[in-house]
């Protein structure tokens, strides 16, 4: 089973297939989902910034968890605790862009703790890999890799900037903004853990 956690921010929800997923609206993401006519299996958050009408509408939904504003967990961390045990994949929709980079970084830390988690919005996909893999270009332009642990014998094929048997250390930015040379990139390594970021082309091209 896949769980989809809707946070909002730069997400066109109608473009994502949620039919067979366990869908959780997180705080403002729950309101966004209801506005788009998306059925929620659960909603969770402190909902401290929603309007009275939105709160009334939300209270009619099943499995709504109103959290105390003063809490130790983020809303997303709390959402992970209410997921069914059958969940094998977790996709966070949104939360990559916006003015709260602290929440984005908190979600990255959750990903490192639980490798079932990935993040997606209309421009970016983020996930973690601890073994060799292939990744197709699809709608993306850039492929960036960051070491969360020392990555040994990293080899990249099918990309504009190939690499052979390289040791990628945390804090090493060498593997940022690679591009596909073929439709399928092949990433192999002996050990370690990679943070993988797929990004669309920045048409503004004003910051590198």
UniProtKB/TrEMBL annotation:
The keyword 4Fe-4S does not apply. Gene3D superfamilies: Thiamin pyrophosphokinase, catalytic domain (3.40.50.10240). Coiled coil: none annotated. Pfam families: TPK_B1_binding, TPK_catalytic. One of its GO terms (molecular function) is thiamine binding. Keywords: ATP-binding, Kinase, Nucleotide-binding, Transferase. SMART domains: TPK_B1_binding. Residues 138-195 form the Thiamin pyrophosphokinase thiamin-binding domain. CDD domains: TPK. InterPro entries: Thi_PPkinase, Thiamin_PyroPKinase_B1-bd, TPK, TPK_catalytic, TPK_catalytic_sf. The keyword Transferase applies. Its EC number is 2.7.6.2. SUPFAM superfamilies: Thiamin pyrophosphokinase, catalytic domain. It comes from the Bacteria. One of its GO terms (biological process) is thiamine diphosphate biosynthetic process. This is Thiamine diphosphokinase. It comes from Candidatus Pelethenecus faecipullorum.
């Amino acid at each position: 089973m896949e769980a989809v956690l809707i946070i909002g921010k730069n997400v066109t929800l109608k473009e994502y297939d949620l039919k067979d997923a366990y869908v959780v609206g997180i705080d403002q993401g729950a309101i966004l989902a209801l506005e788009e006519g998306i059925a929620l299996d659960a909603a969770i958050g402190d909902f401290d910034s929603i309007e009275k009408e939105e709160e009334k509408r939300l209270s009619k939904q099943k499995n709504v968890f109103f959290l105390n504003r003063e809490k130790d967990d983020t809303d997303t961390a709390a959402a992970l605790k209410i997921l069914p045990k059958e969940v094998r994949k977790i996709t966070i929709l949104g939360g990559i862009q916006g003015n709260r980079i602290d929440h984005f970084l908190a979600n990255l830390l959750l990903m490192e703790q639980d490798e079932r988690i990935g993040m997606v919005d209309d421009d970016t996909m983020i996930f973690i890999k601890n073994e060799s893999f292939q990744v197709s270009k699809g709608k993306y332009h850039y492929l960036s890799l960051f070491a969360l642990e020392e990555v040994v014998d990293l080899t990249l094929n099918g990309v504009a900037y190939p690499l052979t048997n390289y040791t990628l250390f945390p804090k090493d930015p060498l593997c940022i903004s690679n591009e596909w040379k073929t439709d399928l990139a092949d990433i192999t390594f002996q050990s370690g853990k990679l943070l993988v970021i797929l990004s669309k082309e920045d048409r503004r091209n004003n910051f590198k």
